[in-house]
Write a structure and sequence with these properties.
homodimer, 352 residues, alpha/beta, 15 strands, 31% helix, elongated
Chain lengths: 352, 352
């Protein structure tokens, strides 16, 4: 029985791997993955790729049919990372297709927080004689779905502060010395970009660094459907930004959005979610803007890449006085990344 | 043959473990360890504990005799981390005792850099019919002996910069919040103190923090012979330091040394080595003094404990402009220490 549970978790992690392929293209929908098992064999697998298109469950069924496993679907078990939808959205309810397919049992990890679906699948499927089991691999799948869950609950994107620093807390090296982080960290950052819907910098970073803010060196699976992330620039005045910046002149110029004189960061975040479907926003800004986001209480996750360098200089991770609310990563993950060290985790505020 | 070499390295690591017990009490002598093997059995082990007292080889022989293994010394093999001394110092040459003991073979890791001994042991021992093999476990033993080798070569202590910081490069949290690092890191730091001969702070740290600068929470083996490290305060004027500071009033007040108005850090280091036998000096100072040590090119090793906190504030790991010589840790070691992350390694300077 214990080992059966382990096997179930193993299968759910395979569904989660599928889900990973969709991360970065599904927003505002969740990235979801599914695998179909007949006995001990995978007969099909799939993931949701883009809002308005087939959900993971449907893609797994299609995959099984394409592989010549159509006969084996009857009696199969479906592992899916999120409770199947049970109502009409842009596509018909997955529960209908599941029932029609003859699947014997549905195992899912996370209950859909959407009140339109929450817990409904169990009823609908059971009424059709299908066994249902929830909660398998829940912790890992919830962690994976956290940005989407957050945006569902708050109407704002999940905000990641990405910082590349020296040991002495600087984010820029002296002239003539380029990047702080090593090549491995560069790939790491581009993987984060690939799963983000938007990247954000301030006007100053845009002017000084003239960054491309595109996904170029990612090592993770990149869907051909992946668009470059939105590039958000927060600045006092649009006119302060030279017209020949890369973000205005490259082929993705249509993905650049300038926000002028933002007084309400929360309002801007709501707009990005509502109007652009941004579920995950990664800050790649300097210390001053980072401080504004911290003071607005808008940072959910902190990812800092620390290079083994002591440089001095005037560009700080975070300039200025003590924060009113110290930020703390409760259970930081520490990742060795070439010669650099990545410290990441969820941010908690505590007032002093 | 291959597996015999592995076995030899294993035995040398046992000798190195012995050497570790002496680290922190032997200066200006090196911490050295030895084990005696008869066939596949350890018959004695020992380490050098204090300058002027028996060397590791002699202690291992004594240990064997005390354990009733005296008969087995004849024909035994001696593993020792440093080439045995072959001349009269404060004690007679170890080679004499080795020859008298009937030991069959001497295996050592590191050649003594002291010109009085370098390579002499081989000759002397071979002339007496004893087999000699050098270089086994050399890399690990050299790394362990690095501070002593440095002080032998330069006449100065090995200088470790120890920094406890937040992610944003601050070394002090806002009022009412105490230590930056967690309890595991505290033990880690006290272990470093236990193996250091002296700790150094600036007048400002002494005044603001009133630190005890003693070994209190170490988890490593502490010899009963271990004295508290020297406590060095560098300040503009002795009069700026209140008389009631812990370092002036506790039972180790005699271990506190104040340096006023130091213009030549190198000169001070030479004095500490020559007059106090300081082989390993750990800086526990603030950013301004740290900057002076960096600018003087006097830091050999960097150990930074990074807590997963973003705090802001005016106390920086390193304040001020770009360094003329950026400091870099070439192959940093990354250690998980509770919720904190330790990054440590040897420091290299590179001019911009």
């Amino acid at each position: 029985m214990k080992s059966y549970e382990k096997e179930q978790i193993h299968r759910m992690m395979q569904a989660l791997q599928q889900a990973g392929y969709g991360k970065g293209t599904t927003s505002p929908n969740p990235p979801v993955g599914a695998v179909l098992y007949h006995g001990d064999e995978i007969i099909g697998a799939g993931y949701h790729e883009k809002a308005g298109e087939d959900h993971a469950e449907i893609r797994a069924l299609e995959d099984a049919r394409k592989r010549g496993n159509g006969e084996l679907i009857k009696g199969a078990e479906l592992y899916v990372t999120l409770e199947p939808c049970s109502s009409y959205g842009k596509t018909p309810p997955c529960t209908d297709s599941i029932i029609a397919s003859g699947i014997k049992k549905v195992i899912y990890a996370v209950v859909d927080p959407n009140p339109r679906h929450r817990g409904h699948a169990d009823e609908v499927l059971r009424a059709a004689g299908i066994q249902v089991q929830g909660g398998i691999g829940k912790e890992a799948c919830e962690a994976f779905l956290r940005p989407w869950m957050h945006s569902m609950a708050t109407g704002r994107p999940w905000v990641i502060a990405k910082v590349a620093s020296t040991l002495d807390g600087r984010i820029m090296r002296s002239k003539g010395r380029r990047s702080i982080s090593g090549d491995e960290a560069k790939v790491f950052v581009h993987n984060l970009r690939a799963e983000s819907d938007a990247l954000l910098v301030g006007g100053r970073t845009a002017r000084i660094d003239d960054p491309a803010l595109t996904v170029r060196y990612a090592s993770r699976f990149l869907s051909p459907r992946k668009e470059q992330p939105w590039r958000i620039v927060m600045t006092h005045s649009r006119d302060s930004l030279p017209e020949d910046l890369k973000i205005f002149t490259d082929e993705y110029a249509y993905r650049t959005i300038v926000y002028e004189n933002v007084l309400d960061i929360g309002g801007m975040l709501e707009e990005l979610y509502k109007e652009r479907g941004v579920v995950q926003l990664m800050l790649e800004c300097g210390g001053n803007l980072l401080r504004q986001f911290i003071m607005a209480g808008c940072i959910n996750e902190w990812i800092q890449i620390i290079a083994p360098i002591i440089s001095g200089g005037n560009e700080y991770v975070l300039p200025g006085e003590y924060l009113d609310s110290e930020q703390r990563i409760i259970s930081p993950e520490i990742i060795h990344c070439g010669n650099d060290c990545v410290i990441r985790g969820l941010v908690h505020s505590s007032h002093s």
